[in-house]
Amino acid sequence: MFCRTFALAVVFCFVQAAHATEPPALTLFENVRVFDGKTEALSASTNVLVRGNTIEKISKDPIAIDGNSSAKVIAGGGRTLMPGLIDAHWHTMLVRPTPTALLVDDVGYLNLMAGAEATDTLMRGFTTVRDMGGPSFGLKRAIDEGIVAGPRIYPSGAIITVTGGHGDFRHPNELPRVLGAPLSRQELMGASMIADSPNEIRVRVREQLMQGASQIKLTAGGGVASPHSPLDVSTFTEAELRAAVEAAENWGTYVTVHAYTPVSIQRAIAAGVKCIEHGHLMDEPTAKLIAERGIWLSTQAFPDEMADAFPEGSQERAKAFEVFAGTDKTMALAKKYKLKTAFGTDILFSQRLAQRQGELLVKFTRWYTPGETLAMATGTNGELLAMSGERNPYPGKLGVIEQGALADLLLVDGDPIADIKLIEDPAKNLVVIMKDGKIYKNIL
Ligand SMILES: [Zn+2]
Asked: Which residues, 6+ apart, have CB-to-CB distance to 199 below 8 Å?
């Protein structure tokens, strides 16, 4: 064991030394108008220099890179440079398979499918996703190591739920659960874990943290896609939620919960949860509470087609439409109480819908201006990511164009504030896609 550790250390040192001799890559974007992720207007013509994975300089004056023959110069021609998009509610592992495939298909196959989807996600301009549940640790590692092209992933690991809660996909014939008995398929693959006491919850939370979770996701109330989970139900007790919050906070990070109803949201906040996913069935007192406590609302504008994943006449389909009907009210409350609102899509079980990820962002312009919408999917979502504190897998600023921020950048052929629909057709309108200083697409 010692020898192996020593050998690894030698290899590591060697790799480091090899890297040290290579100067970091330089990319200069000339003559671009900048949307910085915060200000709802474009700058005048600007030049932006990226060194390595960082934005080094932003200047109205020309930036000299003489003597550096390896520097790449991109003539922006007055196009818009903006931060890479961030989806705050994504499931890297659950986009393409059907619910049945997830439970029965080979795990290697599911991972390869998720890898292909991750590449497509990046090519839609989404350079970061906050993964809200699923076995994404291996995919994240493969992307970070450059094996697969994909977005940065902020993984939650397995969704933690209760018996019969949202995320419990077991069949009734798998009951009763015997404590200590073999785990169900969904648990073995790390998609979701069932925990029915504070002690069990602590174990499951710590297991996700040990594997590299940047935040912890629990389902505090009923959900649409789960077979045994009515929407009105509150799942965890306050003590159970608090056990998760304590375990996460001991690791310097936070808990976010899936919750639609006032009761499930309020109980989660009482237990110390810092972010609410969805919130589509909230009421005014709950919105006030979210505002007073400075809690994040991570919400979505679900398209009706999302219900197509569920059979006609099914309970899941009916639940989907009940949730969709709450969107207008929730967005109005979010605006009225100036809630810290993050944008996400939560696309599940549909590659076809995933291809419309940008369109689901544009849908937010039903409630927000195009500038507000773009700022939400960049600068604001970047603030939410920073909540992972010491567990942030990508320290550095994301979602903004400013000196010192990480270089995740999109060059848009046009002005996305004047015409946000440009985001709906990334193949045509995103002419350069850069993540971590590396160019993944350049059709100029
Ligand atoms: Zn979700």
From this structure: 243
Instruction: Tell how far the Cα of 295 is from the centroid of ligand 1, in angstroms.
Output: 18
The pair of three-digit structure tokens given for residue 275, joined into one six-digit string: 């972010």
**Angle, alpha carbons 30-434-14 (nearest 5°):** 115
C-alpha 428 to ligand 1 mean position (Å): 29
User: How remote is the CA of residue 348 from the centroid of ligand 1, in Å?
Assistant: 8
* pLDDT, tens digit (0-9, with 9 covering 90-100), for 140-185: 999 999 999 999 999 999 999 999 999 998 989 999 998 888 899 9
From ligand 1's centre to the CA of 30, what distance in Å?
39
Separation between Cα atoms, residue 255 and residue 275, nearest integer Å: 7
Alpha carbon of 31 to ligand 1 centroid (Å): 39
**Under-50 pLDDT residues of the chain:** 1-20
Q: How far is the CA of 54 from the centre of ligand 1 (A)?
A: 31
Closest CA to 304 of 257, 258, 262, 359: 359
Maximum pairwise Cα distance, the chain = 71
φ, ψ for residue 369 (rounded to 5)? -70, 160
Give the side-chain half-sphere CA count within 13 A for 305. Answer: 13
3-state helix/strand/coil string of 28-46? EEEEEEECCCCCCCCCCEE
CA 89 to ligand 1 center in whole angstroms:
6
Q: Tell me how far CA of residue 361 lies from CA of 78, 85, 87, in angstroms.
A: 24, 10, 9
Structure tokens at 342: 């993050």
Say what angle helices 262-270 and 284-293 make with each other, to 10 degrees: 20
Determine whether 212 is exposed, middle or buried from the number of CB atoms within 10 Å of its CB (0-12, 13-18, 19+).
middle
- Distance (angstroms) between ligand 1 centre and the Cα of 346 equals 5
223 CA distance to ligand 1 centroid (A)?
Answer: 9
Q: pTM for the complete prediction? A: 0.94
What's residue 21's pLDDT? 59
Interval 12-31: pLDDT, tens? 444 444 444 577 899 999 99
Which DSSP string corresponds to 369-429?
-HHHHHHIIIIIHHHHHGGGGGG-SS-S--S--STTSB--EEEESS-TTT-GGGGG-HHHH
* Ion ligand 1 nearby residues (CB, 5 A): 132, 346
